[in-house]
Amino acid sequence: MPPSSLRVFAIDGLVPVVDPSAFVHPSAVLIGDVIVGPGCYVGPGACLRGDFGRLILEAGANLQDTCVMHGFPGTDTVVEEDGHIGHGAVLHGCRIGRNALIGMNAVIMDNAVVGEAAIVAACAFVKAGAAIPARHLAAGVPAKVVRELSEEEIAWKVAGTRTYQDLTKRCLATLVETAPLTAVEPDRPRIHIPGVVPLVEAKQAKG
Question: Which parts form a coiled-coil structure per UniProt (predicted)?
Fold first, then answer.
């Protein structure tokens, strides 16, 4: 998507940075001290408001629809390489470790650290200053560490993030604004992405 189509705002002379290989949806808003790294995906309606602290998406990370990133002055809010931030999550002054996953509508508060390849469940609330160990699952309000993740669960997360990295490339290559059709065409094709299923289905298939 050409930079001129993005909703990007400078403040106090600080201009957001978006790597040319990243995709930022035109309805997302980037303000001030924001750094979007190579191969990142930023979804529709996401808000990265770097008017206080610095916001960083490292290589291959995704920040999905309606997510919010913000932080106090003098802080960095960071999603490390291959981090995966689900729809509607809020990150405030925290650090999300490499290959970690934050579930839909979860909230991660100031000075919290989510370890490498950890998973925070959907709708969880991670308190300020909390530490989620690497390769563990945290869930609840407030979030508590539930158990260690299996190799299968971590592999599922890696595959899901790879799907979003592929989506970045698909969006850069084919996403265009258009007018809707007025009727469903005969034999309407589907988007085909083989091998991607919810974790619960993958576990059921293995018995």
Answer: none
